[in-house]
Design a protein that fits this description.
By secondary structure, the chain is of the alpha/beta class. It is 32% helix and 30% strand.
């Protein structure tokens, strides 16, 4: 499924760090950055998390919540957050139901081997729960800044 700006973001409820559940309904009324990443504590995913963390005060000033989502376990997320002092929640989708609903659980290929994995994607959702913007196949450098600028404009 490909998300299109102006359509309703797929509903979800996932377990997240700090022992909480995160749901789209619970975030309604605020702008939301959902960034989907492949794996905790890998170089690209760490840099992406650090970039979002560095800009978190500016995202909060723009009334925008950041949520990282991957198929890693909560235990893995907790270690990742502690190691890099991340203050935004990380949601765990071990069943991959949300990843599939958002179209980011895809067939990938490395060295000729095909496997299923997360395509690095960011979705910006407006206060009404509508998709405002989608970034597919994200390249990490400069990405968090681009998302922040878009969040300020909606």
């Amino acid at each position: 499924m490909t998300l299109t700006p102006g359509t309703h973001a797929p509903a979800f409820t996932l377990p997240a760090t700090d022992g909480q559940n995160i749901s789209l309904d619970g975030l309604k009324g605020r702008k939301v950055v959902l960034y989907f990443y492949p794996k905790d504590d890998t170089s690209g995913c760490t840099l992406e998390a650090q970039n979002f963390q560095a800009l978190r005060p500016e995202f909060l000033a723009a009334d925008t919540v950041i949520v990282g989502v991957s198929p890693d376990s909560l235990k893995s997320h907790d270690k990742f957050r502690a190691k890099y002092d991340l203050s935004f929640p990380l949601a765990s989708d071990e069943a991959k139901s949300m990843l599939e609903a958002y179209g980011v659980w895809v067939e990938k290929s490395m060295y000729g081997r095909k496997y299923m994995g997360v395509e690095r994607t960011t979705v910006l959702i407006d206060r009404e729960g509508l998709v405002a913007r989608v970034w597919n196949k994200v390249k990490v450098p400069g990405h968090a800044e681009e998302v922040l600028e878009a969040a300020k404009r909606i």
